[in-house]
């Protein structure tokens, strides 16, 4: 019994000393630690990193014998074999890593290995396996797929799981890598199964389409979002109002076909509390020239349109506000409607002919007019409408 206790104390102290030596990092410490504790696989892996190729290979072989379920050790052996010119051995070692470990690491290593070998069937097999275990930022993994086949639809079909979060990331990647046109198959697939988690990536894609002047494509994505209840539907009927969210009943999305509202502490835009009514408050310190509200509007094929509103100013000075309607394609001005000073509700309207492209930009601009001071006070707007055929 005494000899057992002595032996236990001896090995406890020896292993503790081995750990102390290992952590000292003095020259020869790791070699000494492996001598004191030859069953510590971690020491052997560290030793392999500091040894010549032959001794390093032997240290890693012993590490995998001691801890055969550690996939990282098999991967280290595979890397050494591959870059020593032995791809067959490397493949077997990477496959063993994937057998003992169900984590992402072995799968991405096999994906990279088969990319370097030019083996497409195995590459796509392990790419799919890697994505099924993936997490976080996947741009590097997407890029590897893109280098193998720069085709968004092919990558969707061959590699990506039916995971909306991964496909939403891939949509953003393709837009950055190859542009909005190349990304359309990804957006369509994501839209076909869109849920709340897909809403923001698809709105961002819609915004990218508008910026690229792919207006009809942007409209299709927007209508798809509305069909799935992810944005409010547009009005319907022959006398429908083409202005979306006209009274700011919902908080503006700041993209797509909803309002973009100025981000400026000197100009506040909000619903007034009365249905369909917008309140704007200018501090008097706002820039001399700035956009306050804007919206891209899809027209309905009419030959002409009538833009109208009721407005009221709560300060006795020129508000300096003008509604301007532009051709979205060319930015050519189609019509303008200044807001006049009026302490009572006053109706205003302007007619315009349809441009060649069925998209316009409706924008409310502030500009201090010559001979006036900057407007300080509130402006109320209600019954904001754009209707075709009038």
Question: What distinguishing features does this structure have?
Answer:
alpha+beta; elongated; Serine Threonine Protein Phosphatase 5, Tetratricopeptide repeat; five-stranded antiparallel β-sheet; Jelly Rolls; 390 residues
Helix content: 40-55%
Question: Strand fraction band?
Answer: 15-25%
Q: Can you tell me the CATH class of the largest domain?
A: Mainly Alpha
- Give the number of helices: 14
Secondary-structure-derived class: alpha+beta
CATH architecture of the largest domain: Alpha Horseshoe
CATH superfamily of the largest domain: Tetratricopeptide repeat domain
**SSE run:** HHHHHHHHHHHHHHEEEEEEEEEE
Per the principal axes of the C-alpha atoms, what is the gross shape? elongated
Q: Could you describe the largest sheet, including whether it forms a barrel?
A: 5 strands, antiparallel
Average pLDDT, to the nearest integer? 86
From the 3D structure, determine the CATH topology of the largest domain: Serine Threonine Protein Phosphatase 5, Tetratricopeptide repeat
How many E strands?
10
Detailed description of the structure:
It is built from 14 helices and 10 strands. It has helices spanning about 1-25, 30-35, 40-50, 55-65, 70-80, 85-100, 105-115, 120-130, 140-150, 150-160, 165-180, 180-190, 195-210, 215-225, and strands at about 260, 265-270, 275-285, 290-300, 305-315, 320-325, 335-340, 345-355, 360-365, 375-390. Strands 1-4-9-6-7 form a 5-stranded antiparallel sheet, with no helix packed on it. A 5-stranded antiparallel sheet has the order 2-3-10-5-8, with no helix packed on it. The chain has 2 domains: about 10-225, Alpha Horseshoe (Serine Threonine Protein Phosphatase 5, Tetratricopeptide repeat); about 260-390, Jelly Rolls (Sandwich). Residues about 10-20 have low confidence and may be disordered. Helix 1 runs antiparallel to helix 2 (about 30-35), helix 4 (about 55-65) runs antiparallel to helix 5 and helix 12 (about 180-190) runs antiparallel to helix 13 (about 195-210). A hairpin with a 5-residue loop joins strand 2 (about 265-270) and strand 3 (about 275-285). The chain is about 45% helix and about 20% strand. It is α+β, with helices and mostly antiparallel strands.
């Amino acid at each position: 019994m005494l000899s057992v206790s002595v032996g236990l104390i001896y090995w406890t102290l020896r292993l503790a000393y081995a750990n102390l030596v290992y952590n000292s990092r003095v020259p020869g410490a790791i070699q000494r630690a492996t001598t004191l504790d030859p069953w510590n696989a971690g020491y052997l892996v560290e030793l392999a990193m500091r040894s010549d190729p032959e001794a390093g290979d032997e240290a890693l072989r012993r590490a995998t014998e001691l801890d055969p379920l550690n996939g990282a050790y098999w991967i280290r052996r595979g890397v050494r074999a591959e870059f020593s010119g032995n791809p067959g051995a490397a493949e077997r070692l990477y496959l063993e890593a994937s057998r003992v470990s169900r984590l992402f690491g072995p799968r991405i290593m096999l994906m990279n290995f088969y990319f370097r070998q030019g083996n497409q069937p195995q590459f796509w097999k392990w790419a799919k396996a890697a994505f099924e275990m993936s997490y976080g930022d996947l741009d590097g993994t997407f890029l590897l797929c893109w280098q193998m086949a720069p085709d968004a639809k092919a990558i969707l079909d061959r590699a990506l799981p039916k995971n909306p979060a991964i496909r939403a990331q891939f949509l953003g990647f393709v837009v950055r890598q190859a542009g909005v046109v190349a990304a359309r198959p990804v957006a369509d697939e994501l839209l076909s199964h869109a849920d709340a988690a897909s809403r923001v990536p698809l709105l961002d894609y819609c915004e990218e389409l508008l910026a690229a002047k792919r207006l009809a494509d942007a409209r299709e994505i927007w209508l798809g979002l509305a069909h799935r209840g992810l944005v409010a539907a547009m009005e319907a009927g022959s006398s429908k109002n083409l202005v979306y969210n006209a009274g700011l009943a919902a908080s503006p999305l700041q993209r797509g076909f909803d309002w973009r509202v100025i981000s400026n502490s000197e100009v506040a835009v909000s619903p007034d509390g009365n249905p369909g009514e917008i309140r704007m408050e200018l501090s008097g310190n706002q820039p001399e020239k700035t956009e306050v509200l804007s919206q891209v509007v899809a027209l309905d094929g009419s030959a002409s349109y009538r833009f109208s509103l009721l407005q009221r100013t709560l300060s006795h000075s020129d508000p300096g506000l003008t509604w301007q309607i532009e051709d979205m394609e060319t930015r050519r001005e189609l019509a303008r409607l200044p807001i006049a000073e009026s302490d009572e509700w006053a109706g205003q309207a302007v007619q315009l002919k349809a441009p060649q492209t069925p998209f316009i930009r409706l924008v409310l601009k502030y500009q201090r007019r010559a001979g006036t001071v900057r407007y300080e006070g509130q402006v109320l707007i209600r019954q904001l409408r754009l209707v075709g055929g009038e």
